[in-house]
Write a structure and sequence with these properties.
By secondary structure, the chain is of the alpha+beta class. The protein has 3 domains: 105 residues, DnaJ domain (Helix Hairpins); 90 residues, HSP40/DNAj peptide-binding domain, CATH 2.60.260.20; 76 residues, Urease metallochaperone UreE, N-terminal domain (HSP40/DNAj peptide-binding domain, Sandwich), CATH 2.60.260. It has 9 helices and 14 strands. It is elongated and about 120 Å long.
Length: 380
C-alpha cells in the first residue's frame, strides 16, 4: 500500500519533491529491541547476541557484522537520532557521531576480558613482559606505593642485525631500556593478583608496545596466615587461662594493638578456634569491609601437679564429674594396681627386635636340607 509523505523526511526543507521511504527500524530488529529501548537495554541485547554470533565462538561472520553495526549506531546518541530520522543513509551522509561511550568491539573485548578478535584495522601488539613482585602481608594490609625498576627490549629494523623473525627473515637491533614504574599496592590485594602497565613492555617494529604485568607474590608471615580476607593465628595458653579466662594483646599488621579477652565463664578447649570480628584483611575494592581474625588456641597442660587433699577437693567441687562417676577398686586378690608411665619407645624397639630375632631363628630351624621347607603329607 502507498505510504504518505512525511515533510520531516524531506531533506533541504522538502526541495526536490517527495523523498523515498527509509527504513528506521531494521537495526532495532537486528538487536531484537524496540525503538524506544534504553541505552542499557541496547547494550544488554548486543552482549547476548555477540556471545552467540561472534566468529570466534562459531557464529556467522556476516551476521556478527550486522549486529556490530547496529550496536555502533544505536549506542551513539547522535547516530541514533540521525538513524531514527533518516535511516542508515542519513547516518552515513550526516557524518558526525563518535560520541558514544563504546564501540561494539570495545564492549565485546571488555566482555571477554580483552579477548575480542583484533580487527584488521589495528596493529598487532608485542607480548606482555611478566614480573613477579614479592609483597609483605603488612603492605597488602595497609597499601603502599613503590618504585620498581624494570628493563624492556626495544627493537629496531637493522639489515645487519640478527634474524629475529625466521618466517619473514627480518633483522632487528635490540637495545635494553631501563625504566622506573610507580606501582600502587592497593589494600586487600591477594597473592596472584596482577598490576598492568600498558605500553611499558617490549617494543617491536610494526607493533604496539607490549604491557608490563606485575604478579603479586605474598610473602609468608611469622604470625598470621591469610585465607581470603581472614587472618589466622595460633596462640598457646595455660590450663589456668583455658579454665579461668584469656587476655592477650595482638600486635596487628599496621601497628595497632588488639586487646582480646574471652567471655566471662567461657572455657577454651584445646585446639578450639575463636574469632575476633573486623580484625582481618581489608576486602579488595571495599576496604571499609574487613574479614575476621581467627585464633586457634593450644592449651599447655602442666607436666605434674602436686595437690594437697584439700586442693583436690576444691577442684572436684568446681569441675564436672566423669560420666558414670569414678570407678571403685574392690578388694580382689587377683587384681593389680599400676600407675601410668611416660612412653618408653626404646623398650618397645627392643621388644620388637627380640620378637623378630626369635621369628627368624624359628624360620631357619624349620627348613630341611637344601633350604627347602619340610612338608609333611597327611596320610589318607
Amino acid at each position: 500500500m502507498p505510504f504518505g509523505i512525511d515533510p520531516d523526511q524531506m531533506p533541504g526543507g522538502g526541495r526536490g519533491g517527495p523523498k523515498k521511504e527509509v527504513d528506521t527500524t531494521a537495526l532495532y530488529s537486528v538487536l531484537n529491541v524496540s525503538k524506544d529501548a534504553s541505552a542499557s537495554e541496547i547494550k544488554k541485547a548486543y552482549m547476548l547476541l555477540a556471545k552467540k554470533e561472534h566468529p570466534d565462538k562459531g557464529g556467522d561472520p556476516e551476521k556478527f557484522k550486522m549486529i556490530s553495526k547496529a550496536y555502533e549506531i544505536l549506542s551513539d546518541p547522535e547516530k541514533r537520532a540521525l538513524y531514527d530520522e533518516h535511516g542508515e543513509e542519513g547516518v552515513e551522509s550526516g557524518g558526525g557521531g563518535g560520541g558514544g561511550m563504546h564501540t561494539a568491539e570495545d564492549v565485546f573485548a571488555a566482555m571477554f576480558g580483552g579477548g575480542g578478535r583484533r580487527g584488521p584495522q589495528g596493529p598487532r601488539k608485542a607480548d606482555d613482559t611478566v614480573h613477579k613482585m614479592q609483597v609483605t602481608l603488612e603492605d597488602l594490609y595497609k597499601g603502599k606505593t613503590v618504585k620498581l625498576a624494570v628493563t624492556r627490549d626495544v627493537m629496531t629494523v637493522d639489515p645487519h642485525g640478527p634474524i629475529m623473525n625466521r618466517q619473514t627473515g627480518e633483522r632487528y637491533a635490540k637495545k635494553a631500556e631501563r625504566q622506573v614504574l610507580e606501582v600502587v599496592i592497593e589494600k586487600g590485594m591477594k597473592d596472584g593478583q596482577t598490576v598492568r602497565f600498558e605500553g611499558k613492555g617490549d617494543v617491536m617494529p610494526g607493533a604496539l608496545p607490549g604491557d608490563v604485568v606485575l604478579v603479586i607474590k605474598e610473602r609468608e608471615h611469622a604470625v598470621f596466615q591469610r585465607k581470603g580476607a581472614d587472618l589466622i593465628m595460633k596462640k598457646e595458653i595455660t590450663l589456668l587461662e583455658a579454665l579461668t579466662g584469656v587476655k592477650l594483646v595482638v600486635e596487628h599488621l599496621d601497628g595497632h594493638s588488639v586487646h582480646v579477652t574471652s567471655k566471662p565463664g567461657a572455657v577454651i578447649a584445646h585446639e578450639a578456634v575463636k574469632q575476633v570480628a573486623d580484625e582481618g584483611m581489608p576486602v579488595f575494592g571495599h576496604t571499609h569491609v574487613r574479614g575476621a581474625l581467627f585464633i586457634q588456641f593450644e592449651v599447655k597442660f602442666p607436666a605434674t601437679l602436686d595437690l594437697t587433699d584439700a586442693q583436690r577437693k576444691v577442684l572436684a567441687a568446681l569441675l564436672p564429674k566423669p560420666a558414670g562417676g569414678l570407678p571403685a577398686f574392690p578388694h580382689d586378690s587377683h587384681a593389680v594396681t599400676k600407675e601410668l608411665d611416660d612412653l618408653d619407645m626404646e623398650a618397645r624397639t627392643m621388644r620388637e627386635r627380640l620378637a623378630k630375632d626369635a621369628y627368624d631363628s624359628d624360620d631357619d630351624g624349620g627348613r630341611g636340607g637344601g633350604g627347602a621347607p619340610r612338608v609333611q603329607c597327611a596320610q589318607q
